[in-house]
Amino acid sequence: MIGVILTGHGSFATGLHEAAIQIVGKQEQFHAVNFPDGASTEALEQQLRDAVKVCDKGDGVIFLTDLLGGSPFRTASLISFELTQAEVITGTNMQLLLELLLEREDLTPQEARDVMIESARIGITSFWHENQKKSSQTEVCDDGI
């Protein structure tokens, strides 16, 4: 099973971690590493390395980060170069996280990366867009087509 390490600025990681557990229950090989204001990147790096030791049981890990180019992303990326099975995904949202937690059993980190990116794209929408889809489906049915 792929290990999952959440990281981001402030309490992003623990906030998302707690919300995910509330929805899908406690998860193995799932860890959150915050990067609070004033923390050093050295401390962040050490915490991420410690998380890898806990989360990687041989099938690899995926780092989920908040912001492209931010310290959590850059630090996770540097660590991933040293690992044989690791991916770094940024722009993490709840849709992506839940999909990964529920589907990671049978996927490699590389397969999971591709599935998660697509899932996150599908999950970003608006009420207006969803309502338009329903309206166009209703029109097709009303016309008998």
UniProtKB/TrEMBL annotation:
Q: What is its main location?
A: cytoplasm
Q: Where is the PTS EIIA type-4 domain?
A: 1-124
Keyword annotations for this protein, in alphabetical order, are: Cytoplasm, Kinase, Phosphotransferase system, Sugar transport, Transferase, Transport
- Note the Pfam families from the entry: EIIA-man
> Under what name is this protein listed?
PTS sugar transporter subunit IIA
Q: For this entry, list what GO says about its biological process.
A: phosphoenolpyruvate-dependent sugar phosphotransferase system
Q: Which GO terms describe its cellular component?
A: cytoplasm; membrane
Give this protein's Gene Ontology molecular function annotations.
kinase activity
InterPro entries reported for this sequence: Bacterial_PTS_sugar_comp (IPR051471), PTS_EIIA_man-typ (IPR004701), PTS_EIIA_man-typ_sf (IPR036662), PTS_IIA_man (IPR033887)
Superkingdom to which the source organism belongs: Bacteria
Location comes to: Cytoplasm
Output the Gene3D superfamilies linked to this UniProt entry: Phosphotransferase system, mannose-type IIA component
The record ties this protein, via PROSITE patterns, to:
PTS_EIIA_TYPE_4 (PS51096)
